[in-house]
Amino acid sequence: MTQLTSKQRAHLRSLANRLKPVIHVGTEGVSKRLLSSTSEAFNKRELIKVRAQEGAPRPIKNIANDIASRLSGVHVIQTIGHIAVLYRPHPNDPQIQLSELTQD
C-alpha cells in the first residue's frame, strides 16, 4: 500500500481517538533510540500516537514526517497540537482492514 485514500485516513483517525500516546519525543528529537522504540511499538500494534514533549526540538508535523521517512511502511495519518497518529500495517497479520474502504 503506497497511498491511503481519504476514507481510509478517516477510518484510522476514528480508531485513534481512544488511543493514548505510546511514544514521547523529548529534547533528543528523533534519535536511533526513539526509532527503535517506535518500531517495537509497531510490532505490537498497527496504529500509534506520538507526543512531542515541551522540550522537543521541532514541531510534531516534522517529527512525524521524519519518523515516517526513516521507518519503512509508516504513514502519517494526522497531526493535531503536539500529537501525531502513525499507521503501519502488520506485514503478516494485519488487524486493521482497509482494503474494503475505497474512495467514492
Secondary structure layout:
Elements (H helix, E strand, L loop, with lengths): L5 H11 L6 E3 L6 H13 L2 E6 L7 H11 L4 E6 L2 E5 L17
Parallel strand pairs: 1-2
Antiparallel strand pairs: 2-4, 3-4
Primary descriptors:
104 residues; alpha+beta; Translation Initiation Factor IF3; 4-stranded mixed β-sheet; 3 helices; 34% helix; 19% strand
What is the β-strand count? 4
Name of the level-1 CATH class = Alpha Beta
CATH architecture: 2-Layer Sandwich
Report the portion of residues in β strands. Answer: 15-25%
- Largest beta sheet, briefly? 4 strands, mixed
Number of domains: 1
Q: What sequence of helices (H) and strands (E) makes up the elements?
A: HEHEHEE
Distance between the termini: 18 Å
| Oligomeric nature of the chains | single chain
Radius of gyration: 13 Å
Poorly predicted tracts of residues: none
pLDDT averaged over residues: 90
Question: Structural class from helices and strands?
Answer: alpha+beta
CATH topology (fold) name: Translation Initiation Factor IF3
Q: Largest beta sheet: what is the strand line-up?
A: 1-2-4-3
Look at the structure and name the CATH superfamily.
YhbY-like
- Count of DSSP H/I helices: 3
